[in-house]
Amino acid sequence: MIGVFVEQYRGIVDDVSKLGQLIGNHTYDHTNLRGQCRDFVVRQIAQTDQLLRGVPTFRRYLRPPQGELSASLATELNATEETKSYVGPILWAIPTPENDDKTADWRFWEARSTGSAKKCAEAYIADIEAAGHGIVLMHDGLYEEPKRSGMYPLEMATLVVNWLEDNGYDFISLDEVPQVQRTRSS
Predict the structure, then answer these.
(1) Which of 61, 66, 155, 175 is the most exposed place for a label (fewest CB within 10 A)?
(2) Whole-angstrom Cα distance, residue 94 to residue 101?
(3) How many CB atoms lie under 10 A from the CB of residue 83?
(4) What DSSP letter does each residue of 20-84 carry, written as one string?
(5) Closest by CA position to 140, among listed 128, 131, 149, 129
(6) Is 94 helix (H, G, I), strand (E, B) or coil?
(7) CA distances from 120 to 109, 125, 146, 149 (A)
(8) Which CATH architecture has domain 1-91?
(9) Of the candidates 130, 150, 129, 131, which has an alpha carbon nearest to the alpha carbon of residue 141?
(10) What angle, 0 to 180 degrees and rounded to 10, lies between the N-to-C axes of helices 71-78 and 38-52?
(11) In the chain, what are the domain boundaries?
């Protein structure tokens, strides 16, 4: 979760946790970490960490914005007291590099498509079928709301999950993933 949204929508954080969903750190304000100094990145992580402490399903998992965190910065973070116990960066398998690492919802937003939740769900399903398994990256629709309006992320995600269940896919939590993808070099 993004720290500024944790502050603004604390009730949603609590609701998600009550559902048993794991909650991780996606920095304080979603700044791309590429090229940022260690102290800036530590502040981004520590601010959000502070906001999420006490949430029962909070795990010290880090997904950097745009999946970008250099190997050298990750090494520095592992040596820093505030961030050394984090696991990550947590990355994704879907979308695949063939889709330029852009999620189906992002491809729809970028094209300024007013496509339905069903069409976006179908694009996700095609991406998932192509990969066969892996962590799926989706967006919640709060960030940059005007650009994402009309995409109905909850309806789209529900369609995808229902299709996956109907087609024999299994769901596991990040805690159960045997080996988490750790580094995407910038």
Answers:
(1) 175
(2) 8
(3) 22
(4) T--EEE--SS----TT--HHHHHHHHHHHHHHHTT-TTEEEEE--GGG-B-HHHHHHHHTSTTTT
(5) 149
(6) strand
(7) 10, 9, 17, 13
(8) Alpha-Beta Barrel (3.20)
(9) 150
(10) 60
(11) 1-91, 92-177
Please report, to the nearest 10 degrees, the dihedral formed by the alpha carbons of residues 154, 122, 91, 180 taken in order: 100
pTM, two decimals, is 0.82
Residues for the chain: how many in total?
186
